[in-house]
Amino acid sequence: MAIVRNLARALVVPLLLGLGACGDEPEPAAAPPATAGSRPSSTAPESAPATPAGDPAARAAEIVRRLSDEDLAGQVLMPYAYGSSATDVDEDNARANQGLGGVNTPAELIAKYRLGGLILVSFTVDDPTSKTNPTTNVENPKQVRELTAGLQDAALKLPAAAPLMIGMDQEYGTVTRVTDGVTVLPSAMAFGAAGRPELTEAAWHAAGQEIAAMGVTVDFAPVADTLNPTGGGVIGSRSFGSDPRANADQVAAAVRGLQSAGVAAALKHFPGHGHTTADSHDELPVIGQNRKKWEEQDLPPFGSGIREGAGVVMSGHLDLQSVDKGVAATFSHKIMTEVLRGQLKFTGVAVTDAMNMAPAKKWPAGEAAVRALNAGNDMLLMPPDIGAARDGILAGLKNGSLKRERLTEAVTRILTLKFRTAQTPQPELSAIGSPASQQAVTALDAAAVTVLRGRCSGPLADGPVSVTAPANREVARVNLVKALQEAGVQVQSSGGAVIRLVGYGDQRVDLDDTAAITVMMDSPGLLAQATTPTLVATYSSSKLSMTALAAVIAGKAKAPGRSPIAVGKLPRSACAK
Prior knowledge:
CATH architecture of the largest domain: Alpha-Beta Barrel
CATH superfamily of the largest domain: Glycoside hydrolase, family 3, N-terminal domain
EC number: 3.2.1.52
Family: Belongs to the glycosyl hydrolase 3 family.
Radius of gyration: 23 Å
Catalytic activity: Hydrolysis of terminal non-reducing N-acetyl-D-hexosamine residues in N-acetyl-beta-D-hexosaminides
InterPro entries: GH, Glyco_hydro_3_N, Glyco_hydro_3_N_sf, NagZ_Beta-hexosaminidase
Shape: globular
Strand content: 5-15%
Keywords: Glycosidase, Hydrolase
CATH topology of the largest domain: TIM Barrel
Strand order of the largest sheet: 4-5-6-7-9-11
Number of domains: 2
C-alpha cells in the first residue's frame, strides 16, 4: 500500500478575481517532459501555466478575505493519503482512503476537505519515524513528480486556487523517504563531522534541486536539535552534533542550500529534542535543563535557521519544563507564540509534528486541532481523523474557542509561503543524479570520514582485505567491496584483514573483535566498545560514503573528519586537528 503525504510542490498558480495575477545511492533518472500542474521550468511547454507573479503576502491576504470558514479550515490541514497516484489507485488503497476520509483517491481527499497540504510518506523497518507512517507512496523520482503534479491539479480547482503545500521527511540518513534514483546525502552528523558549512550549503542545494524536481515544496529538514555531549537519546545521527554553535552554522547552511533551490526548509523539533531520552512517538519527553541552559544549548540552531529565513518551524511534542511544565510544546502558547514568535522573531509557518503521535492524541482530534492553533501553530500535520479535525476547527469558530483572526493569520502565512516557494521554477528531472549533485555530495562525504583510532597516512590495512557486516548491511557491504576494488585494494571473500561494517541499531554483539578495521555507518558511539586496532566513522551507509571510505582505506585520501559527539575515551579524531 502506498500513502500519500503530499505537500505538493507550490507549482504554478493561475489566480482568480484579478489578484495581481515541506540508505544507498541509486542511478540518475531520465527526465520526462513537464507534466501539467508542475512548476514551470525553462524548458516547460508553452501551454504550461505560469508561476504566479506579484507580492506573495499581498496575494495571500487578498485570497484569505474571500475564503469561507470551510476553505480556511482545510488550508491548515496536512494529512497523508493512500496511493502512488493522485487519481488512479488500486482497490486496497481506495479502501484505505475510504477509511481515512470517505473518498477513493488522494485528489478526492483534497477536494472534499479543501486541503492546503499533503505529506508524502514511506515505511521502512529501520526508520525511527515509521510508527506514524503506515504505508509507502513514494517509489522513484518520476513517480513522485507525476503524483505531485496530479495533487497540484486537484488543489488548483479549490476556491483558494492556490498551490498545494507538499511535504516530505527527506532528512537523509535514517530518515529518507526517496532513495531510488536520487543523490543520497549522508546523515546530518556527517555534516557535523566535516565541519565545513560551505560544503553543507552546496550539498543541500543539490538535494533541494532534486527534491524540487520531484514536486515537493517543503522538506521537513534540517534537524536543529542539539545532542547531549555523548549523543545519547532518540535523535542520534539525525542531529549535526552536540556543539550548539557548530550546529547553528550547519543549520544556517542547510537552510540556505535548500531554499536557494526553491524548497522551504523546516527546522525541527522545536524547542529541541536532543537533550531528551524518551521518544515523542510514544510519550511526552522532558526537556529538563533550566531556562538558561536550554537557551544556551538548544536555541542557537533554531535561531540561526530563523535568521536565515527558514520558511517553516516544526513544533515538537516535548515538555519544556523551564517554560511551560507539563504542556507539550505543540499546545503551549508560551513556547509557540511567546518564545518562537516573540523571542526568536519567527514570521513563517509553524507546523505541528504528527498529530497522530501519542502526546497529541491526549484529546479528541477536533479539540487537539483547536488547541494547537491557539498555541500558535499554523498547520496541523497528519491529524488522526481529518474530518474530526476540520469539524473541530469549524465548531471552534462558532463557539468562540478559536478566533477567526487566529485562523486567518495561519492561512495567510501558509498561502504566503506557498506563493513565495512557487516563484522558483521547478527543475527538470534531469537535475536528479546530475554530475553537479554528485560532485557536491562526494566532497561532503570525503570531508566527513573520521579515523578515531589507527593510521593517519598510507593504507589502513596491509595486503588483501575482506568485508563483513550484519545481514541487513549487505547493500553497503557490496558497495564498499566495489569501491575498494576500484581503488586498487585486493578484496577476498574471506581472510586477509577483515573490515567490519556496523550501522544504525547495531550493538556490541554485532562487532567483530578479530577484525582489523571497524567502521560505524551511523552515530559512532558503538566504537567506544570496539577493540579493533583501527576505528573509522562515516556516519552514513550511502554509496558515496562507501566510496569516500574506500579512498581512505586504500591510502589515497586523508580522513579529515572529527566526531561531533564524544565517543567514550576516544579522541574526536586520531588524525585531524
